Fold this sequence. Notes:
heterotetramer; A: alpha/beta; Elongation Factor Tu (Ef-tu), domain 3; Rossmann fold; 2 domains; 7-stranded antiparallel β-sheet; 7-stranded mixed β-sheet; 6 helices; 16 strands; globular; C: alpha/beta; TIM Barrel; 8-stranded parallel beta barrel; binds flavin-adenine dinucleotide; binds FE2/S2 (inorganic) cluster
Amino acid sequence: MSDATTKSASATSIENKADPIRGHARVVSNEEEGPGRRLRLAVPDWPGSIPGQFVMIGAGAEAGVPRRDPLLPRPMAIYRELGSSGVRASAEGEIELLYRVVGRGTQLLSEAREGESIKVVGPLGRGFPLDRPAVASVDESGSKAILVGGGTGIASLYELARALISRGRSVVVILGGRSAGDLMGQREFEALDVQLICTTEDGSDGVHGLVTTPLADGLTSGERGATVYAVGPTPMMKACAALAATNSVDCYVSLENPMACGFGVCLGCAAPRAEGGFFLVCRAGPVFLAREIDWEGLP
Amino acid sequence: MSDATTKSASATSIENKADPIRGHARVVSNEEEGPGRRLRLAVPDWPGSIPGQFVMIGAGAEAGVPRRDPLLPRPMAIYRELGSSGVRASAEGEIELLYRVVGRGTQLLSEAREGESIKVVGPLGRGFPLDRPAVASVDESGSKAILVGGGTGIASLYELARALISRGRSVVVILGGRSAGDLMGQREFEALDVQLICTTEDGSDGVHGLVTTPLADGLTSGERGATVYAVGPTPMMKACAALAATNSVDCYVSLENPMACGFGVCLGCAAPRAEGGFFLVCRAGPVFLAREIDWEGLP
Amino acid sequence: MTEAIDESVNFAGIVLRNPVLTASGTFGYGTEFAPFLDLEKIGGFVAKSLTLEPRFGNPPPRIAETPAGMLNAISIENVGVRAFLEEKLPALPDGVVVIASAFGTEPSVYAELAARVSEHPRISGIEINASCPHVKAGGIEFGQDPKLLGELVREVRRATTRPLLVKLSPNVTHIADMARVCEAEGADGISLINAVQAMEVDVETRRPVLSNILGGLSGPAIRPIALRMVWQVAQAVEIPICGVGGIMNAEDAIKFMLCGATAVQVGTANYLDPSSAQRIAVGISEYARSHGFKRVADLTGALETPRE
Amino acid sequence: MTEAIDESVNFAGIVLRNPVLTASGTFGYGTEFAPFLDLEKIGGFVAKSLTLEPRFGNPPPRIAETPAGMLNAISIENVGVRAFLEEKLPALPDGVVVIASAFGTEPSVYAELAARVSEHPRISGIEINASCPHVKAGGIEFGQDPKLLGELVREVRRATTRPLLVKLSPNVTHIADMARVCEAEGADGISLINAVQAMEVDVETRRPVLSNILGGLSGPAIRPIALRMVWQVAQAVEIPICGVGGIMNAEDAIKFMLCGATAVQVGTANYLDPSSAQRIAVGISEYARSHGFKRVADLTGALETPRE
Ligand SMILES: Cc1cc2nc3c(=O)[nH]c(=O)nc-3n(C[C@H](O)[C@H](O)[C@H](O)COP(=O)(O)OP(=O)(O)OC[C@H]3O[C@@H](n4cnc5c(N)ncnc54)[C@H](O)[C@@H]3O)c2cc1C
Ligand SMILES: Cc1cc2nc3c(=O)[nH]c(=O)nc-3n(C[C@H](O)[C@H](O)[C@H](O)COP(=O)(O)OP(=O)(O)OC[C@H]3O[C@@H](n4cnc5c(N)ncnc54)[C@H](O)[C@@H]3O)c2cc1C
Ligand SMILES: Cc1cc2nc3c(=O)[nH]c(=O)nc-3n(C[C@H](O)[C@H](O)[C@H](O)COP(=O)(O)O)c2cc1C
Ligand SMILES: Cc1cc2nc3c(=O)[nH]c(=O)nc-3n(C[C@H](O)[C@H](O)[C@H](O)COP(=O)(O)O)c2cc1C
Ligand code: FES
Ligand code: FES
């Protein structure tokens, strides 16, 4: 209990994580994707990542001279690992990010062009627990995993889905948006061996309504040992967590607190713990069991 | 004597100057030119300029969102007026700048690409006196004008040469650089009806030596009523001014003090006057009679 | 959404058509901006600080760029009070609100300046520059010592019945104490902040960049400091506040108003874009309208704070 | 050009392999940086400020971005002195120079912290954090009142014979006076500056961005302020100075040394590029070599000033 700042979200995080690197990635492509953009980066010495990890990337491409504004890097989930093999190092790995333009940093990022250089630190954070059961001590292999993604939250779910599939889990993916044009990454998820359910609030695509409708269906369909992984806007994660709790299944979420460093030294990314005190989202998370979080205390 | 800050460099500045505009110019092209670059800008509502005037331009292209670093605009002489007629307003005028990368602002400028937007305020400053004699009360029409340009200083001389030619002056242009590759704008000057002399310190092109050698020749060649216009590094301008003084002819220079505003309100661009006190370079200049300046007090 | 909104504010007894003034030393004597904006569409402007006699400033270099900021050591170069009143003021369009800024080395000098400008009908108010960060004597000394500041404000207050503003130096331990002194001595409003004392060095010449060694830091870099001080002073005094420091756009200006400023001054932004002040005035009004405020003045102090 | 150059400096009795330390609160407990740089290739690091007991900080949001800067209100969240000595220190490689930072609400608490860390052989020095800009009690109060500061330094000085540094707050009127007090009470060195008290507001929520309302501004935005204070303090005291504030690269660090700093601390830059400190150390050494200095230590105070 002496280390106030390093509570681990769960004992089940994968331990054979690679050390993060810092370096300059090259923009391979940066294209529109639904309501946001898809950024492909070639990262020298990229060691590979674990599903749920993230990178800190510079706001926009770097000029030939330093510009001090905006100052801080931005956290972004690693959507896809391309051309690098799991946690093993390779000379250059390609990764993909999915992002939406919400402010200055992401606006500048959207202006980065092929061949330009972007600062990258990562992979960071603990990923999703995959191999061992979480808190419910049941054998999860073969049991159902329900992945719920809203907005850019789906960026954390693609590699998770692949990893769960490869571990023999039966995977349901629920992607939600306001309308048809809102969904990102749909084509990659369609190519996976998952049951894909899309929801739109206006009914323009897939199921009419919120992601919680198919989630509730999936949870009450009787199967035991399901796990929910929900990543998206806070209200969505809260609602998913509540449904999971009602059905006595574990729910993992990934928090998106503002961050300055991403590796546990600025103490800026604190999220309140259910039992008092704080987690550092970047180091103890960003993945947490929903019930470990004090949702009321989140800004 | 009450206005300490607005001493006019000479009573001969052209008075029918147009009001400056502020706006966003579009980069038409931005290409290598000798040791520097040539930037062509399309400026909405450009009113045209007088030889020797300058613009304040944003450091680098503007992104979709504001970046506060670097903060201040940079002064740049208007090298060429293209497609706008003298001091008359036109819907969009094109201007050309010649610049060298010396720091952050010019580095960012060098990265601006076709179609990007750059903030422009101008035309600013008083230009060169053209129509009336300066202090020496002789009729200058037909008399020799010797224009001496070093480095990017030549950017202030092209439109001056054109204007003098059209006023029937016989024009000698001396362009100096360290070596052949150092000269900018040579092809435009070659196309003018001037006597063009290039000098290089290493003798790789034109006359071997400094610009002062042909200048001294030109001044001692006996003709009366010559005027020298010298723009370049401070030591060069000082040397030219000394030669002109020895030969009792006027020498105009254009100073390149650091500037924040460019139109006389920050008081940042002060240059010491020979008779005490300061000129505001942006408003009283940037063109001055060399003898009006206290050269020792220039930083 | 398109109803007219009341943009006017009453700042320290000066009725402004909108809350956007421009800051002393960054707007010349007003006419310089005529090509770039409509002087009658901004709230008004504070003219360059005046001394009794015309005055030259420091030798160059006087300015330098720093991260998101600029450094200056101009040192109150100005045309002197007589030329200001006789030449500069008459050149301005009628509807322009002008606030004069006074600078001196003695309270009596400030008082004389205040008395002289007060006689002129075109002067709407007087701002005491008690805070110039790079003049050897005067200015900042007053702004850094509550006792001296009190004496200064008292003496100037006696010399004029016009709206009297005091511009405070940020280079102090307790800004609220300085504001309280001004209020106690009868100031009608507080302007803050002046530039922050700072320095820049050239590693190639191994010299300070400014001939004066020290200068004043302005621009976006100092905005969070200015905002903090405005908020602290707003908790401490009843008289109105004019927020100054790093305002580049309407959003920045609104932050100051939410923290308690009745009006704002735009400074360094005038150099980057000489039409800034007018653009900001329009932006404030649009924000107020789209956020359900009836009057721009209602933005003042509309910050919700978790406690205190 | 390629001769070896002496990079070491003696800072307040601590021999550093080069002048680049990292700043408290920005370098964790050191091991976090092992993937990014060689801890034995930087001068050393100042660990996160310690309290007697483990301590949680403020609720979120704790950080915000500002122009060329960042705002934080962490509030000395730390593992407590026991865990620091027993768990954090032993995890570090042998050659790492560690300076402990002490924080408290009473001089006696600082003194107890100093006494406890002094017993540990791995601690090379103690830095008194007399300047945290956003903790309600303690810290900044000491840093803003010369009398309180004197008492604090006196009491801590009695508690340890180790090199004792005092980290000063920039939120004061006369920084040189504060430094003189520290020198008089036996401090071995001065670190400056801590973050500048500041604030940021969200115009959409109309709330302060930080839960704590006020925070500390760090990063390049404050560098010119820090540089000015280092220069002022260097004129005022004989004890060595560690320059802190907005250092992003070697050039920035050299500016501080030229102004009189013996060593520097890199803070916010660690977040942007966790290898910053090592990169800066290399850059300083290259500059010294290419500019004809025999020893990096000769950069200290090598500024030429026109007068004074
Ligand atoms: C671990 C992690 C993974 C993330 N993954 C992704 C992703 O894959 N795709 C994606 O689009 N976004 C992702 N985010 C969110 C992303 O970091 C923010 O959208 C981004 O930092 C905003 O930067 P900006 O400069 O555009 O906006 P700013 O101008 O900084 O802010 C704009 C708005 O966004 C809010 N904001 C600022 N920073 C954050 C932040 N870090 N998190 C949430 N809100 C913020 C601000 O309060 C403000 O309302 C992730 C965040 C975290 C912590
Ligand atoms: C009226 C006028 C006209 C000019 N015309 C031209 C032109 O046509 N072409 C051209 O290339 N340059 C011209 N200059 C100079 C140009 O403005 C500077 O080179 C430019 O501002 C440097 O910006 P930077 O950010 O690249 O360099 P910085 O990073 O700001 O500085 C790099 C170096 O240049 C010096 N410097 C900075 N600003 C200036 C300045 N305004 N003048 C001189 N030195 C400076 C600095 O002291 C430093 O040593 C002109 C300057 C003036 C005042
Ligand atoms: C070049 C320059 C000159 C200034 N001159 C004065 C002055 O004469 N009197 C004064 O009260 N403030 C003066 N100031 C301070 C500004 O009025 C303002 O308080 C400060 O710059 C902060 O605002 P800003 O960040 O918007 O520029 C000057 C500022 C600059 C940059
Ligand atoms: C997130 C954060 C936490 C900090 N925590 C501490 C601290 O615990 N103790 C301390 O003395 N300074 C602390 N500081 C201040 C830094 O050590 C440093 O003085 C300041 O940030 C200025 O340097 P910089 O601009 O290089 O960051 C902290 C700074 C930041 C940004
Ligand atoms: S982002 Fe810095 S500690 Fe988490
Ligand atoms: S550049 Fe501002 S007054 Fe000349």
